[in-house]
Fold:
Amino acid sequence: MVHAPEWAAACLNFTWWVNRKDSEGQNVFEGGFLGLDNIGPFDRSMLPLAGRLEQSDGTAWMAMYCQNMLELALVLSQHDRAYEDMAIKFFEHFALIASALNDKGLWDEQDGFYYDVLKLADGTVMPLRAHSVVGLIPLFAVTTLGPETLGRLPEFQARTEWFIHNRPEAMTVIQDIHHESHGGWRMLSIAAPDRLRRILSRMLDPAEFLSDHGVRALSRYHLEHPLAIDVGGVMARLDYEPAESTSGLFGGNSNWRGPVWFPINYLLVEVLRSYHRYLGDDFKVECPTGSGTMLTLDQVADELARRLVAIFTDEGGLRPVFGGYERFQADPAWHGLIPFHEYFHGDTGAGLGASHQTGWTGLVADLVIRKPSPLRGGR
Amino acid sequence: MPAAERARLTEVPRGRAPWRKWGPYLSERGWGTVREDYSPDGSAWDFFPHDHARSRVYRWNEDGLAGLCDDRQLLCFSLAFWNGADPILKERLFGLNGHEGNHGEDVKEYWFYLDSTPTHSWMRWRYLYPQAAFPYDRLLAENAGRGRSDPEFELLDSGVFDAGYWEITADFAKQAPDDIAIRVAIRNAGRDPAQLDVLPTLWFRNHWSWGLGEAKPEISCAAGALEANHPTLGRMTLAGDGRPVAPEPLFCDNETNTQRLWGVPGRSAFPKDGINDHVISRAATVNPALTGTKAALRYRLEVAGGATEVIKLRLADKEGPPGPDFDQLLATREAEADEFYAALFPAGTTPDEALVARQALAGMLWSKQFYHYDVQLWLQGDPAGPPPPRERLAGRNSAWTHLDNRDVISMPDKWEYPWYAAWDLAFHCVALAHVDPEFAKSQLILLGREWYMHPNGQLPA
Structure:
């Protein structure tokens, strides 16, 4: 096979996750990738009760990992056909994990959202009705297959056709609408278009996830409606906390209960563009929810990227990242000096946590570089 | 100069000119980290606090301000300052540890990465240093008195900048891979004349004290310059041009002041804090023989309110002070950086968006750090040292004995998270790929190598 050291390493790491984090071998995963530390009412890695927590995000990350491997294999297959077999493997593995997530009760039809589900030793099943990014992360598992790719790989195409026709349960995660606008494209996603629409209506709602500066890690809905859960006689609470954490969970050094985090928002921008590649300009959603403005998903991605960049850029003499610091806002010697924080206030966009995290917050450079040109049109 | 920085980038993978050899690979916090922690219970903050950092040698890394080193971190350069009011030199960024801050660890300083090209042929760094005494004790006390529901008490909240401050800008430009021009511009952002000591400092990471058979290098004084000789790195000289004042060379050793910390005599009469103690309290703690493993050029400046003084330095494998083409070199490299970034941002990018994105990328490039960690050796202890507590053999990282890292790696944050994290690193590479795809690719491959990834397939973080 063509030499690709990172491919071998990724296979080993993928297998480590599969063997490590699916305790019952049912394609449903505990444990997460991004910690999301204090996102739940209790520490998700140390349950207060006997039982286990099936996590929407843990399973979704694995479905996404399958897709990443599938995408890599498809690229490598242009150089070495041996990778076609690997592409088939990861295609099928995606379908198994993604349909498991949809079958195992993590989707809540009443609320139109994905939740973590607590399965207690006595058989009780309890969804944790938190409007958090845990329920948005299933959106990350999306990829598209174009007619050119499928045409180039006849074996892959034949095998996936077989799979689709013989595994009807997988149809919920493989969008294969022979509709003209899709032009022979397929979309692999945990969330089918109707579910995507329901999740986005919350995500793009200013009263829930959408702030002026990106998507909050926890919905503002919980400001008025804190989540309280009785765990063995103790009430565990989850409140909307847009600034620093008020609890000592995980050392209290980071906070996922309301602030805006770049890695999550960056992936949302990326996947909205993926959905748009398949769903096209006909699929529009109201953005922001309640505004009456209908946008394509590409336009929603542009709008989200714009809000993220606007954390740092000057608007009327103010940069939101500086928050209430008069010296930074008003002194010309300071106003052009930009800190890159770890996360940002869910209401104001002020920088919080580590102040030089040009690690992932440095992704703002990518958003500027790939900003849609006004000449491209589309609006 | 058509696409000069692009040309340098393409030279690197072909091994023609090691343009990336020198870079901002120094950490901003070596204290309070897992690697430097040899306690039985893994209490890294308590084992090596900020108060020890000026006096106690690091085992695995080094830290400093505007820090520069080679990609093996043999020789380090950084800037130190003294406003005449502080009880210690400002050699490294101050912050509260995980127990001291009301929302965990938090750095309490204002410094900025304003620019860098991917090969570090051009870099700009800025630091804002109060003229009044840095409120070390007040930062500790105010945060200790605050709870989880309160915001953090920051340096700006203390009002210390209202009494005037120093705006210090360090520019770096490479004439050649081993020939670096350094310009330090010091602006008195206050109304009254004020005094500042500026100490460009050169030192060797201590790799000779651990019984591993490595020879001790030496820095000596040659015609007012600092001449650093290392058996594998060769000779590097740090020279000024005698302006605006002639600097005084000061020498000590990168060895622990065991007398101060533990009340017992140590390996050197002029330990790591020797220059600090000499400048602050005129102690006889610098070596009159002008030799050692840590040395500084002490510039004592008096600057009028609103005025700027400039120090010019050359760190090179050649002798000689900054020459007449010094300013031209800096101007050329800055123009090349302008050209590099102009080509990166699409038409329609506003000047303010470009400013934000360029500083974001500067921050990413400045956040590269030499990361050295041999877990087996760390658990067993060094041949020359006392054996570490037995508890460590079953403690943190004891299942990672295959891990042996000695590379330049992109960090999430060189003060708050001066270690790599697989998830973060993958995101970093998305942004870094815009300016240096070779580096981004090599980072991802590195994490999958057998001296990083666990034999079972788990990635280190």
Summary: Chain B has a mean pLDDT of 95. Residues 4-447 of chain B form one domain. Chain B is about 25% helix and 30% strand.
